[in-house]
Amino acid sequence: MTEKHLSSQFDSELNRVSARVMELGGLVESQIRQAVYALTSFSTDAVDQVIATEKRVNAMEVEIDHDLSSIIARRQPTARDLRLLIAFSKATANLERMGDEACKMARMVKSIIESGAARSLPTSDLRVAAEMASELLRKTLDAFARLDTKAAVAILKEDDLIDEEFDGFVRKLITYMMEDPRTISASLDLLFLAKAIERIGDHSKNVAELIIYLVEGKDVRHQTMADIESAVL
Asked: What global pTM score does this model have?
């Protein structure tokens, strides 16, 4: 990911931080996959594993942030090196928030299990969206490691599909609650779970935008997809 510098020590520091960011990404990816499994199988063991991983994710985020602050203070990087370090920092923050969303998913699954309504709720569509979000994070980490702007653009498009799944699920869930008011409490848990999945997609999108920022030096957060494609492809 990083380019060679005159200082081999600086190269070593950049590579070490890069590896730590990818390690954090792998940890969060496994956390999200475990949350998806908890939803698919209504497994309390999987729920507990997701929640237990949260401390490791938070600790790694703090450690990486400390390393980045130290490098910036000592090296005073400019231009592309500074963009790289900023991208690392923002990617780390987004990954930590994805871990938070995975914990929200796990807690909602636990609440649904305890309500006794797990098998009667319309969860099949939600599982599809959860698997899409998990796969999107995997693609995002791969694109970030390779600084692949074309893959980043594809990720932005895929996030739109997750948003569409979320909107469709919300409409279906509202109809479900209207038809059977007894399920309102458990259905609201499912609604919050769906929102957590949608937010994981949003954070993957944020990291994809960072890839474009890092490679092209352009902030595309408020641009249309057509403008992004013309700037990157």
From this structure: 0.88
